[in-house]
Amino acid sequence: MFRQAKWDEPLIFELSKPGRIGFTLPEPIEDVDVQIPEGLRRKSLELPELSEPEIVKHYTRLSEMNYGVDSGIYPLGSCTMKYNPKINEEFANHPKVAFIHPYQDERTVQGALQIMWELEQWLKEITGMDRFTLQPAAGANGEFTGVMIIRAYHLDRGETQRTEMLVPDSAHGTNPASAAMAGFKVIEIPSNEQGMVDLEALENAVSERTAGIMLTNPNTLGIFEEDILEIAKIVHKAGGLLYYDGANLNGILGKIRPGDMGFDVVHINLHKTFSTPHGGGGPGAGPVGVKEHLVDYLPVPLVEFDGEKYYLNYDLPKSIGKVKEFYGNFAVLVRALTYLKMMGREGLREVAEVAVLNANYLTQKLKGTRGYELPHKELRKHEVVFSAEPMRKETGVKTLDVAKRLLDFGLHAPTIYFPLIVHEALMIEPTETVSKEELDAYVEALKKISEEAYTNPEIVKSAPHNTAVRRVDDVLAAKKPVITWRMYKELKEKGEVDY
């Protein structure tokens, strides 16, 4: 359990005392003539005045209020919040990585180009694709890149009528968003009773207007699309292309490749599958791989190797252009290659095996617990989606209440209310980096919450009780976000915030 800090603890500006010094700036260099326009000069510099120990204590207190992959299980479904090995950070922070600049001459950054080239070779082998761009900054950026490539391909062939993108109803929300941003009309494909793509509905949906289909395998229910070869056949026969959302690659890593399933375009979340930090908006990387017939449309530049030197190739006349400045989030690429080389072929295969084992162990331990229902197929891959709909109907305790109550056990909640096709969904992905003991503790917490829901539902409905902040009014937080400490003080004095 983390320290139960309170919001009435003083802010760093309130701790400030005139004359206290934590750092002394060096004396200015007198003989340097720096002309700063008057309009850009600060009139004052309002910084808190504290000693070094006070500053360290303050930020240590803040860190104790936080939760991350180094704290414990972080089972957000389809997010693959696995532990990030610290050796990745060592290499990413090496001076020869941290202090190079993208405007340097190619001859002076051969090592960086080699890192990118080698990473591409790994990704090609893992996915069954022919070429990769490493530019996209995240999964959604990779999705947009992929569908833009599909769009460019069809337009180049003169097939301007292909304006529809098929998306399963279990897809990630960014899939239809990315397709719409690229100018496509989104056609939703329903799932069958087993939680997979309904083949009859798919056959009825494809036409000369079909540009492609976006899906992930395993899907967001954690279920492997057993009919993927038939899906590929149907879409390809109609002239469309298959796009693979790589969010769930962790469940099949080293076992099967999207390229062998029939996919034409793949994006990978390096920050998920290949263990680089993410969350809070970044950093991330979403490389996009394509089959040979789509290589000409990749963003520029591509990294090439002529046997002696590495160089950047801008000679792609049909390229969709750039999707990220320079060459992508390079430090994330370094972390990913470090992870890949540390794990090796057998290690990556074991990642998938343990991730699937953990998800199914948790499934079997929780299955049958009062209030939780397991829809669709029982056997899952890397994640599982339970429904708390029976609990809601019988006790009034909702999935949101379960998630908030988990915080009182010192555990991070799973993804909730997604996918939308499961009512009161709890989407749990433990990943391969949690132990059996952690899984047991998580299941026991969910079982305890079930017991409370049926005996003392109010304790669950009013949770959390042990956190620094009690349950936040989501509507008020969205309409009146507290951005600065001054705003917080003003709203507190007016009685407009209750935390």
Q: In words, what does this structure look like?
A:
This is Probable glycine dehydrogenase (decarboxylating) subunit 2. InterPro entries: GcvPB, GDC-P_C, GDC-P_N, GDC_P, PyrdxlP-dep_Trfase, PyrdxlP-dep_Trfase_major, PyrdxlP-dep_Trfase_small. The glycine cleavage system is composed of four proteins: P, T, L and H. In this organism, the P 'protein' is a heterodimer of two subunits. This protein is 38% helix and 10% strand. The two termini are 21 Å apart. Helix 5 runs parallel beside helix 12 (330-366), helix 6 packs across helix 7 (174-181) and helix 12 packs across helix 15 (436-455). The protein has helices at 12-15, 52-64, 86-92, 95-98, 110-127, 139-156, 174-181, 199-205, 228-237, 258-261, 270-273, 330-366, 389-395, 399-408, 436-455, 457-461, 474-479, 485-494, and strands at residues 131-133, 164-168, 185-189, 210-215, 241-245, 265-267, 288-290, 302-305, 310-313, 384-387, 415-416, 425-428. Strands 1-7-6-5-4-2-3 form a 7-stranded mixed sheet, with helices on both faces. Among the domains are: 12-64, no CATH class; 87-342, Type I PLP-dependent aspartate aminotransferase-like (Major domain) (Aspartate Aminotransferase, domain 2, 3-Layer(aba) Sandwich). It contains 18 helices and 12 strands. The model is unreliable at 1-5 (pLDDT under 50). With 499 residues, it is an alpha/beta fold.
Keywords summarizing the entry:
alpha/beta, disordered N terminus, 38% helix, single chain, Aspartate Aminotransferase, domain 2, 12 strands, three-stranded antiparallel beta sheet
